[in-house]
């Protein structure tokens, strides 16, 4: 079952690559991510917490992000 699926996708990928170019068959590869689709950024649920003195200094000097 798995081998049949791999061979079927490989055949479709090869035919697409012949018709459209080498990169055209990438959508048939499992595990490969296509073009990433950005999602809206959300504000943090809580403020950052310093874990040591160095990061405490950085947090105290940082400016809030623009909204």
Question: Using only CA atoms, what is the Rg?
Answer: 23 Å
Beta-strand percentage? under 5%
**Biggest sheet details:** none
Q: What low-confidence regions span 5 or more consecutive residues with pLDDT below 50?
A: none
Average of the residue pLDDT scores: 78
Number of DSSP helices?
A: 2
| SS elements, strand count | 0
Class per helix and strand makeup: mainly alpha
Order of SSEs:
HH
How widely separated are the two ends?
A: 51 Å
Helix content: 40-55%
Number of domains: 1
Shape: elongated
Task: Provide the descriptors you would attach to this structure in a database record.
67 residues, 42% helix, mainly alpha, 0% strand, 2 helices
């Amino acid at each position: 079952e798995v081998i049949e699926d791999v061979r079927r996708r490989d055949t479709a990928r090869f035919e697409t690559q012949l018709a459209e170019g080498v990169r055209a068959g990438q959508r048939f590869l499992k595990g490969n991510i296509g073009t990433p689709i950005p999602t809206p950024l959300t504000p943090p649920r809580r403020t950052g917490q310093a874990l040591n003195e160095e990061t405490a200094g950085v947090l105290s000097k940082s400016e809030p992000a623009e909204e």
